[in-house]
């Protein structure tokens, strides 16, 4: 073996001295010197190192990193010659797994040990397994933004409370939206090779917007993180939506926050501590209603609870100056009838309206004690408008709940009636607290914490456009339509609505097309490439992956050339990010489209690397 | 309407259903229907009990039997009257239905069970195996005679059975039924019993049985509103009775049974809706050539993901101002959440859009001859309205497109946005149904109808001949040829060092082709 010497101490074999530092790339670190030959195997060298160090420790995770070549020596049966290692090689004997700070899609930081020696694709798969996120191929890591953006990250609060005063920086232009994509790490190389150091902060994000087989039953973590990524996308205006859509998003967030805070994912009605008294008050009511609620097979045949009371009614008509008038109103099944007085009730009503399919709009101002229900009732002739004015919150909540159910064709015998009443009462109390009323916070300390902060739920431009007291009722209004969803249903609904946005899932890169003299934007989505005019923002051209024949990368001139069917050729050089990232994005989407519909198939890592790699030669 | 009136309606409906069943099972092919037999232990009963279970339990066995007998007796008088009416009407209408072969496709009207004075029941002209029994019309056996057995258990059992039966009957009686007169395109009509649980798909299947048409996916139930001059097809998942309940009593509206290519055009040629990029030339050229495989992947991409992709659609349309005669041109965009327009002086970015309408409470209809009636700029109009609105109203929205193609894109886009994946499921069911029908004829199952009415030949309107497989079935040889071509062209680009092939073919073929291209990125040493 290496190190044979004569009696005088001269080495008689071809052995030489190899110096190996112990630790993570620290030149000051302790080092050991071994006597090796070119035929020494890496495995043998490793053993010798451990012997030399002579310290009791689990060395199993340690391996040799060759600094000059930026390469791990992982093939233990290879010889030093085969690797081409000579005496001048700077080798480090260090752990393959090192701690990193991971920023999850929900913006929380997580410290964990990630593999610095496996290709990133595998390292991400390991991380995802740890977090129990299925389909790790859809995620990847980005470098944390540097310098000025670092400040932003610190400002990014754990509890997402937006405020007009400290506005978050947001991407305004398309050019800004290209920035994050320059930071993606390379999937085919390991973290070490990409200059990541132990303790660095990295972002974990869904990179490819093609979510395979998303199943709320088996994907709770994946669903939550995806929801969080979608949420931040919207709040940071990475993706635009309309006002109506934003209200639905806000309502879903509010609902999800409420459910996750109460910790009862399955339960519908939140248990805000501020509502305890209310709950107590409602308990009696609940008992009463449950008593009359049918539970047996005969539910459809039993009597249906009805509401009867004096309400003030107003019917807006042309050429009329009449205001609200008191009537005796009977609400049975889905039909509302009103009479001049209670005495006339057995006779014919003044009018009878079937509320099935009608629009129910609240017209409420808690501070001025105005509790109106506006009904837009469809009839063969068109829509008839009618306003019901209630005396107080309780009355309003019951009639409102009845109207809402009736509009969906259900009666007050429906099991959701009670929770609906409760939700409306909660709605009113929130409006009192959340600035829906007079806007001043005189309701005690509870008001600000328990109430809904609409600015935490909508993108900044809506914060600028509307006042909180304008937003709150609209969000709560939209909330009525989603109040029955469970936590996962709400998250899924949010993700679906996000996916339905026209600009969903497009990653932007600044490129220069061959033959063009100005920078343009290339958008990459899961099924197509788009060319966008940088100044106007219009989509100039769309190429679909399904028509794509092949793509090539010329690493020397950083140019990507793509060939489509019918000899359409497109070539561009990348400006905002390296062409490696663009290339990997395209290859990644092609890979994802090969996934079989069947579940549980093993990841074809080789195929992925084949499609996204190919630049090692460079 | 009084309660008694309701009862009679229901009895009438049930009776009709029963007659229908009888006619079917007897295979009557002569003109007069069989003299209706007095109904067996069939009764109608719609009373709300506080606790029916309890009151029924309290009854003695004999009492229970007596109750049923009473119920039967109660309705017999009403039956006699209705039977008489039917007999007359059947005779008068049989001429129309004897047209046989040309039955398919047509024109229509609906009669309410309540207000139809003469309802026709068309007897079957052939001996086709009867359609699968409608569970609805399944008559339970009459109550068993009083048990001679004295064992308490058996008595209890028998009583329980009877109560169960009575309850079922009561539930049954609650089921609303309508007699729907469906118009065929030869001006004949067919009357169908439709109960409130049936979907348009069920009714179509029923009509397939009756007309022996080719069952292609294009067949649809079509509602037309002569007064509003609007029309649309029922979506297969829609509840027919629910839709018809919105019609007014004296309505002129009709239900037709006909073929409409537009119904599932989006699934047959998705590229026309998803890849139609504002009339770019090269896109149009490739459009016609799109092969089945590509179509399939386009459909998969659009309809099988976590959420359905709504076709990208935007452009200038004319909008009829509320209650006014003028038509105003505006730039509209379709999104999953509704139709939006670009307000004056704004851009078409998401942030500036104003919501025009959301789809939750409206249906989309085709406008007919709006040019004459409303002075529309073109004939290609669509209408959005709440299904319950039956008369002209400011709440009905009229929009007008420049051409028919745009119109279909908008109507289809709105349907995709409104119904989402359901639409695709409907289509798949329709394809399955059509496939079943064609296989049936392929197997040479000779039915008597085939002899009487030569298949396919007479029907000029059908685009899909019997026996053809669903057209989107991928062709194996095509795929093979395709992958062959792929392998041939997989040369490394001249300037590049790494060529990348697209694995959109079967994986084996793909791997073969990448093997050729793999050399450039050989592992480093």
UniProtKB/TrEMBL annotation, chain A:
Gene Ontology MF annotations: integrin binding
Gene3D superfamilies recorded for this chain? Phosphatidylinositol 3-kinase Catalytic Subunit, Chain A, domain 1 (3.10.20.90), Pleckstrin-homology domain (PH domain)/Phosphotyrosine-binding domain (PTB) (2.30.29.30)
The family database entries (SMART domains) matched by this protein are listed as: B41, PH
Can you cite an annotated GO cellular component? cell projection
Q: GO terms for biological process?
A: cell-matrix adhesion; integrin activation; integrin-mediated signaling pathway; leukocyte cell-cell adhesion; platelet aggregation; regulation of cell-cell adhesion mediated by integrin
Q: Which domain of life, per UniProt?
A: Eukaryota
What is the annotated signal peptide range for this record?
none
Q: Where in the cell is it found?
A: Cell junction; Cell projection
Query: What CDD domains does the entry give?
Result: FERM_B-lobe (cd14473), FERM_C_fermitin (cd13205), FERM_F0_KIND3 (cd17182), FERM_F1_KIND3 (cd17185), PH_fermitin (cd01237)
Q: Which UniProt keywords apply?
A: Cell adhesion, Cell junction, Cell projection
Q: What is its main location?
A: other
Keyword Cytoplasm belongs to the record: no
Q: Where is the PH domain?
A: 312-408
Annotated Pfam families: FERM_M, Kindlin_2_N, PH
Q: Does the keyword Glycoprotein apply?
A: no
The entry's family comment says: Belongs to the kindlin family.
Q: What is this protein called?
A: Fermitin family like protein 3
What species does this protein belong to? Fukomys damarensis (Damaraland mole rat)
